[in-house]
Write a structure and sequence with these properties.
- With 90 residues, the protein is mainly alpha-helical.
- It has helices at 38-52, 58-70, 79-89.
- The protein has a domain at 33-90.
Amino acid sequence: MKISGPNGLPQMAPATASSRTAGGTPKSNDAARVRLSSDAGFVSDVQKEVADTPMVRKDVVDSVRSALEAGTFENDIDWEQTLDALATDL
């Protein structure tokens, strides 16, 4: 006869006091070790930077919206300079 835990899953033995430090963390010989490549660190840094970057420059949107509503918006955009700046930011 097989005894299972809740939902039919096998029961796991609890960690013994001797396998843990006083703070409750696993002792170094029992701890799982994870090593990340430099690529993983780079990806993590980029994800943090993207998360901290606003998706929309509200000040610019508000300025253009006001100019459009007032009928004073002029489209004298230097597209070459704009694209160069965008390429530099990327």
